[in-house]
Design brief:
The protein is α+β, with helices and mostly antiparallel strands. The protein contains 21 helices and 17 strands. About 60% of the residues lie in helices and about 15% in strands. The longest helix is centred in the middle third of the chain and has 54 residues. One of its GO terms (biological process) is intracellular protein transmembrane transport.
């Protein structure tokens, strides 16, 4: 006995030391690099501000070496703006550039313009320049020969030459081995003559050759300023690409908006976490306190992994963490509910705890694995920030299973060994009230059908009212979105934005004012203007206009081509279909009954259609987060369904001969009812706080997520069990 108590004390000391150390590490970090410090977690562009642009490769069948060379050279170009900038390949024919920028100091449109559409770079001697110029002026296509092309340039860098009496700004060129040979031949033949550097159809510079250059390096001198030298060097570097690229999407986020998103989301998470811990203690007494300790460890572990593994945190990623905290409570609720049932059945506390963990294991594993299926589909088919949401949600699911099955178990057993065994501290499960869930199935089904039909009917209403069935956002329609933030004392209502701002934007961009969609954001004094796809020049003019004429404090932009939007629509449908099929197969395998899988998936379709109806009736914005919202609802709802199915399966093993199948299903739903309500409540609290305090881009996402949580609880209790019963009875009659 003394040994077990000593072991319990040691376990608790180790836990609290690790928890304290983890908290310290998360706050201050350790070592020279401050490893583990939360402040060092890399932030996505939506949280720190900056520019993201996606290019599409125009060359047919580019080789992997050409793509790699293009990415490498673009990365060197990006390094001039930020050491944290990233360039990476997406799919087979796209390259994305992400550059963190302080938009208060750097004009993101200037950067976007300089990145431009990396086209053709040519070095021409006088004779070939004349032919090229005639082609440009006359529209002819006479053949000319370039001295060098972009692929011959290895690097270009701005510099200052102080060797003379007057400071001279220069661009230092470095050629590839092949380029060095070409340039040596060309300069030897053109001493005293200019070499024209042409980028994307315009003459960037025309330096005169002083002497033959044979060492693979050259200097362009007599440039008027360092800024001009830097711009020319940048032009040469970005032009030195093996492939031609076309810009198809860009997004500019202001630094202020990102900072506000971080602070409000973190505060929302902290408040939600505190409320969940209080609720757990009120509902489950001492085990609720233990769960709060385990959840604290869970949060610390999450922060440390994000920091140590350098996982980029996005705004949807924060939403994923906050949602996963609510879901982490689920495993604890399942365990504690089982413990209470065992105590009510007459077991001692120690035996009840052991049985509670044992009986809860299969439900916890099945529920989390099915949720992981939806998350994996999101990671594979999602893009950009949605992948950030999927990464943190997946990490949260894995950590929640670890903390519930190992940390909570260790803490409970340790306190048991130290004498915390009073049943009153754990509570007893009350005898569940058995309602006629199966009997009321038709009523619930009709009610759901009315909501779904109303949602479908509103597709036609919306089409006649706003010209489209759903309020597709930029991601699904293509176009340009401009978000202007105004001073707090200068409020812009929808009417004021329509009458004062929209006509000026239309005139500046040369578009019809009637095509501009306007949306105001309550509480933030922001106005969002959605237009057809604008050029960079048009977008930059609108930015300047909003800041100079209408005194906007910050302007953010996003532009998406119709190509991207079409793919996103397709991905949304495929993601939901794939995840549903995979879940059906998993449930059918685990429960050895395809009827469990079919009824679960039909209930998921119900949940998706009800939330879809909310998007239709409320004309909510259907965009990239729509996919994440639907798949999260799918993953979350299936979790509650599996708990009920697990209880039905368990009760069938000990079914009394006098008990009908209908009574068994009703009893199983009643036994898991409190778990469904409590889990839904804790998750709802986390999401609700984020809805109230979060930034605009999260409000619609969290609103529909709250609706999905309520709908998921409803379908789990009122639809899935009765639906399985109905299918079971019909198939039994056919086989009889």
């Amino acid at each position: 006995m003394k040994k077990t108590k000593r072991k319990a004390v040691i376990n608790l000391i180790i836990f609290f030391l690790l928890l304290a150390g983890g908290i310290y590490m998360a706050i201050a970090g350790v070592g020279q690099n401050e490893s583990g410090k939360t402040a060092n977690v890399p932030l996505g562009l939506d949280l720190q501000g900056g520019l993201s642009v996606t290019y599409e490769i125009q060359d047919e069948k580019p080789t992997s070496d050409e793509i790699k060379a293009t990415v490498d050279k673009l990365q060197r170009r990006v390094d001039a703006y930020s050491s944290e900038g990233e360039v990476y390949q997406e799919g087979n024919d796209r390259i994305t550039v992400e550059i963190p920028l302080n938009t208060e100091k750097v004009d993101a449109h200037d950067v976007l313009d300089e990145l431009g559409q990396p086209g053709q770079l040519l070095f021409l001697d006088s004779e070939n320049y004349t032919i090229w110029q005639q082609n440009q002026n006359n529209g002819t296509n006479d053949a000319y020969e370039a001295v060098l092309t972009g692929s011959d340039i290895k690097n270009a860098q701005a510099g200052v030459d102080d060797s003379g009496t007057v400071k001279d700004y220069v661009v230092q060129l470095q050629f590839t081995d092949e380029g060095a040979q070409k340039f040596a031949t060309a300069t030897a033949a053109n001493i005293g003559k200019p070499i024209y550097i042409i980028y994307d159809g315009a003459v960037a510079s025309a330096p005169t050759v002083q002497s033959a250059i044979t060492d693979g390096n050259a200097v362009i001198n007599k440039i008027s300023s360092y800024d001009e030298a830097e711009s020319l060097a940048s032009t040469i570097k970005i032009g030195a690409l093996p492939l031609e690229l076309k810009q198809i999407q860009y997004n500019i986020v202001g630094a202020k908006l990102g900072q506000k998103a971080v602070s409000t989301s973190l505060i929302a998470g902290a408040i939600g976490f505190g409320l969940v811990c209080i609720l757990m203690i009120v509902l489950y007494r001492f085990p609720g306190f233990i769960a709060s300790l385990a959840l604290t460890g869970y949060v610390v572990l999450m922060l440390l992994i994000l920091s140590i593994r350098h996982i980029t945190l996005t705004l949807p990623g924060i939403a994923g963490i906050i949602l996963s905290i609510g879901m982490a409570v689920d495993a604890n609720v399942i365990i504690f509910t089982r413990i209470r049932e065992e105590i009510s059945a007459g077991s001692g506390v120690r035996a009840a705890v052991k049985a509670g963990f044992s009986k809860a294991l299969s439900a916890i594993l099945d529920g989390n694995i099915t949720t992981l299926i939806a998350t994996v589909v999101l990671m594979i088919l999602g893009s950009g920030s949605i992948k950030g949401f999927a990464v943190t949600l997946m990490l949260g699911i894995v950590l929640s299973m670890f903390t519930a099955l190992f940390v909570t178990k260790m803490l409970l057993n340790s306190f048991l060994e130290l004498g915390v065994q009073n049943p009153k501290m754990y509570g007893k499960a009350k005898e569940p009230k058995i309602h006629g869930y199966v009997k009321n199935f038709k009523i619930c089904g009709v009610a759901s059908l009315i909501v779904i039909i109303a949602g479908l009917a509103f597709l036609g209403v919306n089409h006649s009212r706003i010209g489209k069935s759903l309020n597709y956002s930029l991601e699904f329609t293509g176009g340009t979105s401009t978000t202007a933030t105004f001073a707090e004392d200068d409020v812009y209502t929808l009417e004021r934005a329509e009458s004062e701002v929209a006509p000026v934007i239309a005139e500046t961009a040369g578009i019809d004012a009637g095509t501009i969609q306007i949306q105001t954001v309550e509480g933030n004094n922001q106005v969002i203007f959605k237009t057809s796809e604008l050029t960079e020049e048009q977008s930059a003019k609108i930015d300047d206009l909003l800041k100079s004429q209408f005194k906007a404090t910050e302007v953010d932009n996003q532009s998406i081509s119709s190509t991207i939007s079409g793919e996103m629509k397709k991905d949304a449908i495929v993601a939901i279909a794939v995840s549903s099929v995979l879940m059906l197969l998993y449930i059918a395998f685990r429960f050895s009954d395809v009827k469990f899988g079919v009824s679960a998936v039909l209930a998921l379709v119900h949940d998706v259609l009800v939330v879809f109806a909310a998007y239709s009736i409320g004309t909510l914005s259907v965009g990239n987060t729509f996919i994440a919202c639907m798949l999260t609802i799918v993953g979350y709802s299936i979790n509650a369904t599996i708990i009920i199915f697990d209880r039905i399966r368990e009760n069938m093993r000990t079914q009394d001969s006098k008990e009908s199948l209908e009574e068994l299903v009703n009893k199983s739903i009643g036994q898991t009812f409190t778990r469904t309500i409590y889990t839904s409540l804790t998750t709802f609290i986390m999401v609700f706080v984020l809805f109230v305090m979060g930034v605009t881009s999260l409000k619609e996402f969290t609103f529909t997520l709250m609706l999905g949580i309520v709908c998921g609880a409803y379908s789990s209790v009122c639809i899935t069990g009765p639906l399985w019963y109905t299918m079971k009875k019909k198939f039994s009659k056919k086989n009889a």
